[in-house]
Amino acid sequence: MSLNLQQLANTLNLEFRGDSGLTIKGVASPDSATSNDMCFVQQPKYLADINRSECGVVILTPELADSVDSKALLLSHNPQYSFVLAIKALELETIYEVEPGIHPSAQIASSARLGNDVSVGALVVIEDDVEIGEGCTIGAGSIVEKSVIIGRYCHLHSRVCIGQSVKIGDRCILHSGVVIGADGFGLVSHQQLWHKIPQLGGVVVDNDVEIGANTTVDRGALDDTIIEHGCKLDNQIQVAHNVRIGAHTAIAACVGIAGSATIGRHCKISGAAVVLGHLTVADHVTITAMSLVTKDIKQAGVYSSGTPLLENSLWHRTNVRYKSLDELAQTVARLDKSNK
């Protein structure tokens, strides 16, 4: 589908500059765009890429509009979000329609209850007393263990495993390899042997949650592990037992959240960060990549830890000096004291 600049501006409710009849057929990165493609720019540091690009239309903020030459413009206070809406308006996203029905190889317990228009793929196993709401898709090879409740219009991609008694809300998306409701890592040492602590809790996933491929959410030891409304979790994340993640929090790949930690609402946790157990993170906190959270974060803000990347020889010299920091601090303290 193609739209001209006037039509797209009307659809997105945006002000435009340029030839109203310019045809827009697609979207692209600045490097690969052609004259009928649209790009977006949100930060000044990418303006040079846009000005070099062959793209015909740019979505950008009003503040950046005078910095772009010889291109049609769509003015938005959130260019990236408007870019997403433009993709939808141009019908560029490939959406695969799944026909309702049950594949002959699926195994469904007689006590399971499936709503209208549910699609169940090949080799799916659905155990006793499961409830699946209308319009859900259960992808090939997925396993839904006994007493699980899944709301309406959820999409489980292939090879998803939902452990017993887990509750999933409406409109959730679980990508391939997701495991919800595995036992938490609960152990007690006795006479130099490790003994498993029974994991008696469950997992509750609220509405409109998306969980990326190969992410694991463990069941609680006693109380439930809870992921609140609208959370977005990337691939390969570990959420341990009894964790609570507040609504609309986004977590990037390879993050580890240890047991009984509480993450606030509207937080952003960047890739490979770690939150230690039994800690509390306030609402509206951003944790930058590879940070280690070792104590409660009580106020909103941006938090970082770790050593930034250095050239290797410089890193070695700096690392050697770490050993002298305590002695140096004591020397400075003595000098400061003697000067008073």
Topology summary:
Elements: E1 3-4, H1 5-12, E2 15-17, E3 23-24, E4 26-27, E5 37-40, H2 47-52, E6 57-60, E7 72-75, H3 79-89, E8 101-102, E9 107-108, E10 113-114, E11 119-120, E12 125-126, E13 131-132, E14 137-138, E15 143-144, E16 149-150, E17 155-156, E18 161-162, E19 167-168, E20 173-174, E21 179-182, E22 187-190, E23 193-196, E24 203-205, E25 210-211, E26 216-218, E27 225-227, E28 232-233, E29 238-239, E30 244-245, E31 250-251, E32 256-257, E33 262-263, E34 268-269, E35 274-275, E36 280-281, E37 285-287, E38 292-293, E39 301-303, H4 312-322, H5 325-338
Parallel strand pairs: 4-5, 5-6, 6-7, 8-11, 9-12, 10-13, 11-14, 12-15, 13-16, 14-17, 15-18, 16-19, 17-20, 18-21, 19-24, 20-25, 21-26, 24-27, 25-28, 26-29, 27-30, 28-31, 29-32, 30-33, 31-34, 32-35, 33-36, 34-37, 35-38, 37-39
Antiparallel strand pairs: 1-3, 2-7, 22-23
CATH architecture field of the largest domain? 3 Solenoid
Helix content range: 10-25%
| Radius of gyration of CA atoms, rounded to a whole number | 26 Å
CATH class of the largest domain equals: Mainly Beta
- Measure the end-to-end span: 77 Å
Determine the CATH superfamily of the largest domain: Hexapeptide repeat proteins
Output the number of helix runs: 5
* Major beta sheet summary: 11 strands, parallel
Mean pLDDT score: 95
Low-confidence stretches: none
CATH fold-level topology of the largest domain:
UDP N-Acetylglucosamine Acyltransferase, domain 1
Give the tally of β-strands.
39
Rough outline: flat
